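Q: Joint fold for the lines below.
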Amino acid sequence: MRTGIGWRHPHYREVLQHQPPVAFLEVHSENFFGEGGAALQVLEQGRALYPVSLHGVGLSLGSAIGIDSRHLEQLHRLVQRTQPLRVSDHASFSLGLAGAGSAPKTVHAADLLPVQFSKEALDTMAANLHRVQDRLGRTLAIENISAYIGWPDRSMDEPSFLCALVQRTGCSLLVDLNNLYVNALNQQLRSSDTDVLQVCRAWLDAIPAAAVAELHLAGHSHGGDLVIDDHGSRVCEEVWGLYQHAIHRFGDVPTLIEWDSDIPSLDVLLQEMRRADAVPVGALP
Amino acid sequence: MTTLAAQQQALLDALFASPGAHPVPEALPFQCVRGLAAYRSNARAQACRCLGTTFPVLAHMLGDDNLAGLAGVFWLAHPPQTGDLAQWGGALAGFLSELPQLADEPWLADVARVEWALHQAGSAADRTFEPESFALLTAHPPDRLRVVVASGLQLIRSRFPIVDLLGADAGHAPTPGETEALPVDGGAQTAVVWRQGMRPRVARCDTAASHFLQATLDGGSLATALDRAPGFAFDQWLAQAVQSGLVLGVARMDP
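A: Joint structure:
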């Protein structure tokens, strides 16, 4: 069994009561940043039953103004308390300055915004990641994002950027297959001759297997002129195909079923999880 | 400013620009309009979800459409500053009190104030009940003791019957129709917010008890707190306060 599930509020009680067989529970770190209370109590109960993976959405590792020290301390406290299986966040930025004039203020976009794949962005993210890993005393797994805008004049492609980040910081990669697919679909909307699956496979083939610590599977939605990574539906067949390719390339890598909006019954998540677990290592379509 | 910093500020400027003023700065890719709309749409949805979770009674009183509108303007006026969205919303009460559109419903700001206190109580540091500590009351004078109160305890004074408005006594929030029928000019109330075990609670607090609790929150000794609340029936109140989890024990004052 390699597959875990995103453990969200609607399933807290059911998972604790019925204890379904899952490889691990993944939670969003920021939901447990409080000093005490019911959320942490639930996490403690979950941790007693399953390995827990802490997945962050707010570190803003690509931020040009650096890491929020308070956020880092809250994460450190949670890591100390939880002793998680993995700690992960995204290759993105959220925190920065906004506002015209001489007194811009610090804002957090609460979204995963793309960074340019440039040397300057790589230097920044590597420095921020070093600071986080030094404080936590462990390495992170860094996830590729869905990007709805792309910066011009990229000096490297995304796999090269992520591989360089791995080399410089010792981090691992969390490869989100749905994000890859969404980005390729949006590329196809801009350029109709894009071969979506070929783009995704080439991306995966550019990543060394040893760098991959986890795979993510999720659903997306079509908004006409843009495909949105909303984690609100089943994994589509094309992404399942990419998953077979990824397992063939990377081996028996821990995998997560993510579902964050329109959350279905736990049974549906477990069905998706069992389907992932059934994909044999080495199999190709 | 570096290229990266300029790019990031340009994108954040565009995302937090006022409606109708959505600029596409030169630093952004020119084919980004649809993408920016997606990020803005996601932000509006997050803001609405977040306010609805943190301020359920206020959301109920406003209704879905008004809540969505409020969430959008509040997000732009007071953007999140940290990656923990649970910390976003503390400025809402002040924001509501200054909104001309809500001048006829001034109690809504106090509803938000109490709900924010409840939200904070929900994640306040855990404290344990120390029943043996009450023996100190017979062993030491009141000026050497202090009362230990529950996690997240706050007092919110309102010129409106705020606890009634929150539906705390009836155990449910009033519907919009019931809100209109409530005597909003029916007298000031002080709400006490605390956590009983893991459950945030709110109740009405009378004048003497609020003076006593405020002195305790300010770090005063039991003697000081009693002095601040003349006529306060401490023994009778203490039994109820212990039963409701509002008081967790007694401790010696630090020397």
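Q: Anything notable?
A: The radius of gyration of chain B is 23 Å. Chain B is about 45% helix and 10% strand.
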